[in-house]
Amino acid sequence: MRTLERGLECMSPRMGPFGGRHRPRRRPRGVLPDTFARMRPSSARRHWDGSPVQSPARRSLRLDPDSPTGLLRCAQRGRCRECGNPVEWYHRVRDRPVRLHPRELPVDDVPADYRWHVSSGLAYPAGDGSAWCRLAHAVVCPARDADPAIVPTLTKLRQVLAVNTRRLTDIGVFTLTTSTDQLAQQLEDSCRPARPVVQLLYVRYLAARPVDEIQCVAQTRQRDRCTHKMLTPDRPAGVWKLVPATATRGQLALPAEMMALYDLSSLPYAEQLRWRTQRCPQHAAAPTAADLALTDWEPFDPIVHYAHMHPRLPTHARRPRPGGDARKAGRR
Fold first, then answer.
1. Do residues 183 and 189 lie in contact, with contact meaning Cβ atoms separated by under 8 Å?
2. Which of 247, 269, 244, 268 lies closest to 256 in space, CA to CA?
């Protein structure tokens, strides 16, 4: 063993350990030293051909300080409840959000009264002077009665949407409701307001959906809308009351009528603020989460929203009279 170690020490530095000639590593011709250093293997992920794996950098969405809506996206995707076709929700200046057709149409194919345009995330019922415009979905919705004043181009678009509705119905994605089903649903939910009047923070609002269906508008980590509801069993709920439908200042006086009201005034201020911002308890504790949809609140006006005033409580049930069955048997 000592003889082998002495032999290795006596070897020339150009000789290898087993007698072969040792050649130092040389860089290829025509390659600069810094390029040769970059050619060395690294810990970065690479494909089978040696090309680096480029993962897109995540970008955090930010709100524009001049945004009139305060949303991450101005066009909220959705489907029409009547026909199942895709629509885009846009916010207007004062009124409720409007459903627009997802594609632009040439101005020559749309009459002037049906033209819409979008500017800074807001929808306006007029043209903007360009060669393209938007169209309200209600004009070409196949589930509604056709307007006799529409042009043949919109009639063809209406037929295309009707075919798409039939295709969605055949594959089971959408269920078409008939007039008989709608009447039965109305009789079943006669005591359940579709758009109830809610009072919170001493202001009355008209909701866009029943109280138990109001959904959180916050964005999840998967960049989808939160599926949690506002009404949770672990949080205090409101109380249904019958209150007089009084008019506000500057309006005509209404007759003495009573309407059902979902009152949240007895809840703590933080809980009422959570309902006003329309966030579930999890997202109410995380104020940095952005909103992905508009809130469903609309300032209540007893003159404009007279059709949504219900004189009966949704939790009201008729109590059977004592001895009622005996009376019915005696009559028979």
1. no
2. 244
Contacts of 323 (CB under 8 A, 6+ apart): none
CA–CA dist 302, 251 (Å, integer): 9
Reduced 3-state DSSP string for 53-69 = CCCCCCCCCCCCCCCCC
pLDDT in tens, 271-313: 999 999 999 999 998 877 888 877 888 888 888 888 888 888 8
Question: Is the Cα torsion angle 25, 31, 32, 35 positive or negative in sign?
Answer: negative
Q: What are phi and psi of 283, to 5 degrees?
A: -80, -20
User: Quick one: CA dihedral 81, 83, 84, 86, positive or negative?
Assistant: negative
d(CA 204, CA 260): 12
The answer to whether the beta carbons of residues 175 and 169 sit under 8 Å apart is yes
Q: What is the pLDDT of residues 244-274, one digit of tens each?
A: 877 555 555 455 578 889 999 999 999 999 9
Confidence (pTM) = 0.52
